[in-house]
Amino acid sequence: MTQKDKTKEEFIEEVRLLQKRIAELEIVDTESKSVEQIVWGEGEARAYAESIIETVREPLIVLGDDLKVVSANKSFYQTFKVNPKETKGQFIYDLGNRQWDIPKLRKLLDEILPKSSVFENYEIEHNFETIGQKTMLLNARRIYRETNKTQMILLAIEDITERKEIEAGLEKTRKELVVIKQSADEAREFAESVINTVREPLISLDQDLRVVTVSRSFYEFFKVKPEETVGQLIYDLGNKQWDIPKLRELLETILPQKTTFDNYEVEHNFPTIGKKIMLLNARQIQRVWGKERIILLAIEDITERKRAEEKIEKLNAELSTAVKELGAFSYSVSHDLKAPLRAMAGFSNILSEDYAPKLDDNGRRLIGVINDNARTMGQLIDDLLELSHLGRQAMDVVDIDMTALVQSVCHELKEELFRDRAIEVSVKPLPPARADLTLAKQIFTNLISNAMKFTSRKDKALIEIGGYDKGQDRIYYIKDNGAGFDMKYVDKLFGVFQRLHAQDEFSGTGIGLAIVSNAVRRHGGTVWAEGEVDKGATFYFTLPKGGQDE
Amino acid sequence: MNNNDQNDQVDILLVEDNPSDAELTLRALKKNNIASKILVVTDGAGALDFIFHTGAYAGRNSNNQPKIILLDLKMPKVNGIEVIRKLKSDKNTKSIPIVVLTSSEEEKDVTESYALGVNSYIVKPVEFDKFTKVVADVGLYWLLINKSPVV
User: Fold this and answer.
1) Per DSSP, what are the bridge partners of residue A433?
2) Chain B residues with CB inside 8 Å of A385's CB?
3) Strand partners, A399
4) Would B149 be classed as within a structural domain?
5) Is the predicted pLDDT of residue B4 greater than 80, yes or no?
6) Helices A512-522 + A437-454 axis angle, to 10
7) Is residue B146 part of a domain?
8) Fewer Cβ close by (within 10 Å): the C or N end of chain B?
9) Which domains, ranges and CATH numbers included, belong to chain A?
10) What ipTM, to 2 d.p.?
């Protein structure tokens, strides 16, 4: 670029700037003309300004250069409960017992405003003597008065105490909401994790019976996927396999009335998983937020349990039939066995009565053998009958005075069977039992008659009968000093037809202890024995406690 | 004991299907000189025919009813319980004393027999001595001690 060029450039630039300046001056001129058009007389403008000031709802105060009050509006007087007399002409800081002598106001008026002519939203918090704790927003304008070349300060005071309080309240509410939401989220998470942890399939439905949430176990159990489940009408789920009349009844009829339903049994053949028997537990829950209701449905698959129960029932029925048949069998066997036996015994007797003179000694002995065996067999049959009878007889459980029972049994046995024997029986006081009287009597009869029988070879037969409590058990015992037994064979004692002695030592059928064992077991008790050969035996059994307040 | 002469007075009607039991019973009665006129029928149907003079006993004199019926329970055709029911529900026959003489000790049989109006229930003992004594006692009581209405 040449010098000449440069000069030319500078010249053009100069002209451009001049043109711009002229344009600006023209705008200023136009503006000043329009200002002139609305310039009013002094009085008129003042009245206008004052009427605005009076109309404004915010307290307004006008200060002079010296910070003395020139004027204030009605709102100011009302808000601060002061009157014009004690206000006008006063130094602002001296107003109303110096209640306006606020450091922040001083800062605004003394420092900030002299530097800038406008200040907005200057917040002051102050405890006023007349009106208490207030938060105010101050808007200030410094106005230059052309007429007398003075400055005035217009101060607008906005009481934002209430707004502040509302805001503070809102803030508090917001914070609380955050906390509530947090705990609600936590609760929801917890509930969801519970739902997903529980093994029972769970499903929640909205008011229109559409699926809202589903537990993992539901998907697993019914072999369905989330995308084909959530949002669906429950009846439409999985090819309408949930459209079950009983479920409809539960959801549409029962739940709206009851809000809770437990153990509602539904049997249904599902295309996916086959025939299932389910227990439904349903709860209708009112949501806290909003008025909608949610139905929670828990599904328990009891197919297996039901099957097992049915199997047990069937087995029980079979068992009780078998027991009945066995009872009938043993009854008729015993019954039918007796007739030929009676004939054997009868006719051998007739033989000996009518033909004795024609028989020799051996012939008469042989008839005796027939008779003895017939008698033994008769006893066997009677005992068998008794055993089968005891097992079938219904129990009538009552409180029993065991001491009295034992004494009467001992007396009867001595009188009927062991009249010619010297037996010393010591009956200790026995605690009462709660049992069937017939069975209890049978137990003692068999055990005591055994004790009497097996002491028959002792010079002095000693029998002791007693009872005591040990822990939860009420134990009774019958102790003798008789033949005893070898503990090796203790397991055989209570079996049917089991005998530990030869017939010519001690007679018996081997059924007595089986009857005892049966009778004790029917009461839920146990029976056991201790013994030593030639030293004696002790038989123990337990029965439910009697004589107790219930 | 003569089945041929149907108009003979019968003291005891023994209803027993087991010939051994029948023979033992007859012997016991005879040995103790209880009764001489005893008729044995072997089942309930025979007993009903005799009492109601039907079947084989169609021409029998109905005024000659037995003084006592010894009745077994377990019998072919018509059992003892049915016989009791028939006789005790008919006004013409219900006053004939019936003694059940059976092997059955079943409570059910005892209860049912008495409910139908049987006069006595005796369980046959297996032992010969006891059996003989029981049969003799029954015969003695019902024929000699007990007073029955004239049928």
Assistant:
1) A400, A545
2) 105
3) A434
4) no
5) no
6) 150
7) no
8) C
9) 49-165 (3.30.450.20), 194-301 (3.30.450.20), 307-374 (no CATH), 393-543 (3.30.565.10)
10) 0.79
Query: Three-class SS string for chain B?
Result: CCCCCCCCCCCEEEECCCHHHHHHHHHHHHHCCCCCCEEEECCHHHHHHHHCCCHHHCCCCCCCCCCEEEECCCCCCCCHHHHHHHHHCCCCCCCCCEEEEECCCCHHHHHHHHHHCCCEEEECCCCHHHHHHHHHHHHHHHHHHCCCCCC
Partner-chain contact A335 B124, CB within 8 Å = no
pLDDT in tens, A36-85: 444 555 566 667 777 777 777 788 888 888 888 888 888 888 887 888 88
pLDDT score for A36: 44
The first and second tokens of residue B90, run together, are 């008919």
CATH number for the domain that contains residue B30: 3.40.50.2300
For residue A88, report the phi and psi dihedrals to the nearest 5 degrees: -65, 135
Query: CB atoms < 10 A from the CB of A132, how many?
Result: 9
Q: How far apart are CA B85 and CA B93, in angstroms?
A: 11
**Residue of A347 and A322 predicted with greater confidence:** A347
Q: Which residues of chain B are within 8 Å of residue A327 when distances are taken between CB atoms?
A: none
The mean pLDDT of A478-491, rounded to a whole number, is: 89
Q: Between A428 and A259, name the one with better pLDDT.
A: A428
Q: Is residue B85 part of a domain?
A: yes
Tokens for B70, please give them. Answer: 């010894």
Check: CB of residue A201 under 8 Å from CB of residue A218. yes
Phi, psi for A136 (deg, rounded to 5): -125, 150
Q: How many CB atoms lie within 10 A of CB A456?
A: 14
Tokens representing B40? 């044995």
Q: What are the CB-based long-range contacts (under 8 Å, 24+) for A513-516?
A: A513/A446, A513/A450, A514/A387, A515/A383, A515/A386, A515/A387, A515/A390, A515/A442, A515/A446, A516/A442, A516/A443, A516/A446, A516/A447, A516/A541
What CA–CA distance (Å, rounded) separates B43 from B19? 11
Asked whether the beta carbons of residue A342 and residue B21 sit closer than 8 angstroms, the reply is yes
- The total of structural domains in chain B comes to 1
Q: Which of B74, B105, B126 sits opposite A342 (nearest CB)?
A: B126
Tell me the whole-structure pTM to 2 decimals. 0.48
**Helix A361-392 with A303-355: angle, nearest 10 deg:** 160
Q: Give pLDDT, residue A550.
A: 46
Domain with B40, as residue range(s), is: 12-138
Phi, then psi, of A479 in degrees rounded to 5: -115, 135
Q: Over chain A, what is the mean pLDDT?
A: 82
Instruction: Report d(CA A70, CA A65) in Å as an integer.
Output: 10
Q: Which residue has the higher pLDDT, A335 or B38?
A: B38
Does B7 map to a domain? no
Token pair listed for A287? 């949501």
- Best of A349, A353, A373, A384 to disrupt the B interface (most B CBs within 10 Å) is A349
Are the beta carbons of A304 and A210 closer than 8 angstroms? no
**A394 secondary structure, DSSP code:** P
Identity of the residue in A340, A342, A349 whose CB atom sits nearest the CB atom of B124: A342
In this complex, the residue of B27, B106, B126 whose CB is nearest that of residue A338 is B126
Distance CA B63, CA B53 (A): 10
CA distance A522 to A544: 11
Closest among A137, A140, A167 to A151, alpha carbons compared: A140
Tokens of A2: 């040449």
Determine the residue type at A356: A
